[in-house]
Specification:
The chain is mainly alpha-helical. It contains 19 helices and no strands. The chain has two domains: 35-334 and 378-445, no CATH class; 338-377, no CATH class. It is found in: Membrane. This is Serine incorporator.
């Protein structure tokens, strides 16, 4: 029995060791192939941390004397939750902001910051991220409250980026499928267009049903719903008019359904005890699992938006895109800062004499990569600095999302509820519609300008 136990213990130790090595190898492979995904994991962890602390931070915050000095609000759970969310947001905005500053000017793969900062040094970066998450809890309340106003501005910038990202995506989608030499793509665009308009009609029906209950005066909701219908008609009409030389019914249908969804999202964000929000009453009666699932989906959409916006640097023309489009991924050729021995040998045997001369010169420089000239001139696949800037702004947006834009306490298992959230969504709807209309009419208003880029 002793031998059997010893063998079992040895096998268990070996299995645990193998599992650790496998996890370590998997994490290294993940980081090597896509650093963006690794940063996304850090952002998601911060998001979950803010969510948990918002609802359960009071016992911890009550032990911090510089917070207890604020006698006016200190007895409310909402005050502690808001303070915790702000502090997590400060730490992550500072971390990603510092990374954005550090990565300014990285254009090519042979920049050492690509190897040691963007794709490497993860032990140091994770330690720095943990430090940045802890230090804001030592800040006084006044400083944290002032950050709340800065976060409002940063959140507005993040929402504007989402609008531009959607505009670029839809227009690129339409142009790509129209240029396809296959009639099936045109039929697919037609089917999606019809589906989008049918979806718009369905959302409008839901809006009238749930946000105009019989009895109370819900004129505000009715006005916003009717205004949303008019926005859809405007977008479609301008797209089909002669003024829009680059107009198309497909983008109009997508933006119409999106603007209608924003109206729905605004109505849902009304306080759940409001008489005109009958859907909110039903959500209050839903199970905690259902509410948590809805909240999780909302937060995942923020993570996805931040990831895609940060990768789409060509759209914002910050001067470092170098002709690289959004579709390029981290795992593209040249993403690895250094080649392994075999690949170096193949590169050396197949390179031209000019490439060999360039490699010799590169090797002669202190600290330069021992790679061919072609490898030295490989541009980065996205703007590292802009990528981190987007995540810094997304960190600010999370603070606003979880605190009702800092104006009212949020109920547990609920986010982005309150009249401030309602108006933010409605303003976002108007900004989306105006941006799309301007894209259509700008070439006619300024015929001498080139809008092709």
């Amino acid at each position: 029995m002793f031998v059997v136990g010893w063998v079992g213990s040895a096998l268990a130790s070996c299995a645990a060791t193998c599992a650790c090595h496998a996890c370590g190898f998997a994490s290294q492979e993940l980081v090597r192939r896509s650093a963006r995904l690794a940063y996304c994991v850090l952002f998601t962890l911060a998001l979950v941390e803010a969510w948990v602390l918002r609802d359960y931070a009071q016992p911890l915050m009550e032990k911090l004397p510089w917070i207890l000095r604020h006698e006016t609000e200190r007895s409310t759970e909402a005050f502690y939750g808001q303070q915790a969310v702000y502090r997590v947001s400060i730490g992550n905005a500072a971390f990603f902001g510092l990374m954005a500053l550090t990565m300014l000017g990285v254009r090519y793969k042979n920049d050492k910051r690509d190897l040691y900062l963007q794709h490497g040094g993860w032990l140091v970066k994770v330690g720095l991220w943990l430090l940045f998450n802890a230090l804001p809890f030592f800040l006084p309340v006044g400083v944290v409250n002032s950050y709340g106003w800065l976060a409002r501005i940063g959140s507005g910038c993040f929402l504007c980026m989402q609008i531009l990202m959607l505009l670029d995506f839809v227009v690129h989608w339409n142009d790509t499928w129209v240029d396809m030499d296959d009639v099936r793509y045109l039929y697919a665009l037609l089917a999606i267009t019809v589906t989008a308009f049918l979806g718009t009609a369905g959302i409008v029906a839901v809006l009238f049903y749930f946000f105009n209950p019989s009895g109370p005066d819900c004129s505000f909701n009715i006005t916003m719903i009717v205004f949303t219908i008019l926005i859809g008609l405007l977008l479609t009409g301008v797209s089909m008019s002669t003024y829009a030389t680059n107009g198309s019914i497909f983008p109009a249908s997508i933006f119409t359904v999106y603007c209608t969804y924003l109206c729905y999202s605004a109505m849902v964000a009304e306080p759940h005890d409001d008489a005109c929000n009958s859907l909110g009453h039903r959500l209050n009666a839903a199970s905690a699992t259902t509410l948590a699932l809805g909240m999780g989906l909302a937060l995942l959409s923020v993570v996805y938006s931040a990831l895609r916006a940060g990768s789409n640097t060509a759209l914002f023309n910050l001067g470092v895109s170098l002709g690289i489009t959004e579709g390029d991924e981290d795992e593209s050729e040249g993403d690895r800062p250094l080649l392994d021995a075999e690949e170096k040998g193949e590169a050396d045997t197949t390179s031209t004499s000019a490439g060999l001369d360039g490699a010799s010169k590169a090797a002669a420089r202190p600290g330069a990569y021992t790679a061919t000239t072609a490898e030295e001139n490989v541009p980065v696949t996205y703007n590292y600095s802009f990528f981190h800037l987007v995540f810094a702004l997304a960190s600010m947006y999370i603070a606003m999302l979880m605190t009702g834009w800092g104006t009212n306490p949020q109920e547990r298992d609920l986010i982005d509820v309150g009249w401030t959230s309602v108006w933010v969504k409605l303003v976002t709807q108007w900004a989306t519609a105006l941006t799309y209309v301007w894209m259509l009419v700008a070439p006619a208003v300024f015929p001498d300008r080139d809008f092709s880029h």
